[in-house]
Amino acid sequence: MKTIIRNAKQLVTCASAGGKPKRGDAMRDVGLIEDGALVIDGERIAAVGRTADILAAHTADRMIDASDKVVCPGFVDCHTHAVYAGDRLNEFEQRIAGATYMEIMAAGGGINRTVQATRAASHQDLLSQSGDRVFEMLKLGTTSVEIKTGYGLDTLNEFKLLDVIDELAHWHYTNDIIPTFLAAHAVPPEYRGRTDAYVDLVINEMLPAAAVWYRRIFPRVYTDVGRWLEPPEADPAYPFFVDVFCEDGVFSVEQSQRMWEAARGYGMGIKAHVDEFVSLGGVTAAIQAGATSVDHLDVTTAEEIAVLAASDTIGVVLPAVNFNLGSHHYANARGMIDAGAALALATDLNPGSAPCYSMPFVMAIACRYQKLLPAEALNAATINAAYAIGMGERVGSLEVGKQADVLIVDAPDYRALMYEFGSNLVNTVIKRGKII
Ligand code: NIG
Ligand code: FE
Fold it and tell me: Among 269, 83, 271, 266, which Cα is nearest to 169's?
């Protein structure tokens, strides 16, 4: 099946040179082609160019007219906690009345409130709720998603979450779902005051089991929703990460380092929640541990921004969190781009700090409060976000050979995606060449 999308008022490729994430001035370049066209052959992009050139060189089974519309890559949400049960509506009101996120957490609420609800929920319940969430994200243009565990916090419940992620990755339209193991999201109630003992449990019991899960259970490449292409014993097609909430009162830098080191021993990628509230030096430590991304970065110092800029690690900022927590302080994303760091954006979708499904809304915040230009926000939400989850070679830009994850947007200018907010400009979502 060959499809041509033609006459796009703007086709923006977000292509990056040299197979690397974008930095500096390259962030201002979205690869704009006026009167653009795109050829999709099966699941992949076969050609990109101006409509006249594409139509002269290609025929198709299906033509889609994108006159007065933008065609761009599907968004990559590179940081979510989409598998959970229950809500945190009461905490929403507590914060309005003046309590802070960390005060609520220290009093036994916060993440552990959701852990209680998630432990009580069945696999089936979690699957159906999180499937709905991922579908909502798809409607808003997100075609690849990273999903973390972290609301189980004991071996059986963390694996319940991994299995839900695995099943979503098999069956969901958004079938590029990258798992991240975040057993070190909080200290569970039964380990209160014994953080080191919990870290030992993560290292000695959970991580080895997660490594086996990844190699033996997690899905391999498949061509269609739910159809195996390779036998289940083949190497997993996707990366697998380990994440740690490195924060004052949660896991220290030293405890985080122990877990990252163990994870690296199993060949897992490394991620870190760092500098959300207190700067502990976690950015430098995570980069030294070989992190693929460091996330949040709300209070990262200029010195550590320089360390990030000099590294291959992607900086992921999550401005929906600041917005949701009613904060007027945002990560210095402008400073990070100016220093030369590779910056990505994500929702951080979770019931506590960011009940947000929308990458366009995140871009809208980043433009206003972090002073990103629309082009920088779009590159941060597509190609750089793909690199933040080890998927930069496959998704995140409209380039020949890449997966055909494409959006048709109801606007003649890509900047409308950030300029408007609270509505959904996504007209058509194409995932692996299929119109969803
Ligand atoms: O990324 N900060 C740690 N973890 C999440 C919040 C999770 C929750 O509150 O349930 C975050 O903000
Ligand atoms: Fe998070």
Answer: 83
Whole-number Å distance, alpha carbon 149 to ligand 2 midpoint, is 10
Instruction: Give the per-residue pLDDT at 232.
Output: 47
Report the 10 Å Cβ neighbour count for 65: 12
CA angle 111, 113, 117 (to 5 degrees): 115
- In whole angstroms, what is the distance from residue 58 CA to residue 134 CA? 34
Q: Mean per-residue pLDDT for 118-123?
A: 98
Q: Ligand 1 mean position to 321 CA, how many Å?
A: 9
Q: Which of 258, 279, 253 is nearest to 206 (CA)?
A: 258
Q: Which residues line ligand 1 (CB under 6 A)?
A: 81, 110-111, 114, 245, 273, 276, 321, 348, 350-353
Residue 62 CA to ligand 2 centre (angstroms):
40
CA distance 129 to 212: 26
CATH code, domain carrying 53: 2.30.40.10
Question: Quick one: which ligand is closest to 351's CA?
Answer: 1
Question: Ligand 1 pocket test: which of 271, 348, 356, 362 has the largest number of ligand atoms within 8 Å of its C-beta?
Answer: 348
The CATH number of whichever domain residue 143 belongs to comes to 3.20.20.140
Mean of per-residue pLDDT scores for the chain = 95
Residues 96, 69 share a domain? no
Q: What share of the chain is helix, strand, coil (3-state, %, to 5)?
A: 40, 25, 40
220, 175 Cβ separation under 8 angstroms:
no
Residues with CB under 5 A from ligand 2 (ion): 348
Same domain (yes/no): 15, 125 = no
Nearest protein CA to atom 11 of ligand 1, as residue: 353
Does residue 233 register a pLDDT over 60? no
Q: Are residues 222 and 270 in the same domain?
A: yes
Q: How confident is the model at residue 219 (pLDDT cuts 50, 70, 90)?
A: low
pLDDT tens-place string over residues 32-91: 999 999 999 999 999 999 999 999 999 999 999 999 999 999 999 999 999 999 999 999
